[in-house]
Amino acid sequence: MNTLKAEKRSMDDKAKKLRREGYVTGNVFGRSLAESIPVKIEKKEAERFLSVCNKGSEAKLTIDTTDYDVLVKEVDYDPIKRQTLEIDFQVLTEGEKVHSVAEIVLVNHDKVQGVVEQHMEEIPYKAAKSALVEKVSVDIGELKPGDSIKVGDLDIAKDKDVSISPDVLEKVIVSVTEQTYAETDTDTDEDGEASEA
Q1: How far apart are CA 40 and CA 1, in angstroms?
Q2: DSSP 3-state assignment of 66?
Q3: DSSP letter assigned to residue 31
Q4: Which residue, among 189, 192, 127, 193, has the nearest Cα to 156 in the 3D structure?
Q5: b/e burial code for range 18-46 (CB count within 10 A of at least 16 → b)
Q6: What sequence ranges are listed for the domain Large ribosomal subunit protein bL25 beta (predicted)?
Q7: 0.85 exceeded by the pTM?
Q8: pLDDT tens readout for residues 58-77
């Protein structure tokens, strides 16, 4: 399991000030906590962690000297400044079902004869700690134009320990359409004629 170190943050320290000082702010909450814990994480430590973890990942979070088994609930990233602003964590309790997301990873993309369109990046679901899923690999190697895969077609949808809402089960994850070569063929013909002249 991936680990991350954090320090308790005084609410007197403003988030903008901490970011200027090289920290990422965060919040830790959960049913087992009397109240949520505001934290700060060294920017380099946060970047190292996020290079292998993301929203929906399970991890061990050390706050000062206490370890917590947590789920990464939210990652607030500023694409303009190219920096992570905040990471929120939920403490996992044995037997408690939590809302999370599983990242969708398409495999055998290169075997598909057609144009692949990915419609979903992640699958929202609810599960206990023991059944959490970080990533779902979807093999699309056998798909042909006109084919598609829905959430309900995947193994995660058949797992009795994982709850997915009926409307999500009906959503299309990936579809394949016919490749059109019309423009390319025309360009090739013109090039051919020009080279022969």
Answers
A1: 21
A2: strand
A3: T
A4: 127
A5: bbeeebbbbbbebeeeeeebbbbbbbeeb
A6: 98-179
A7: no
A8: 999 999 889 999 999 999 99
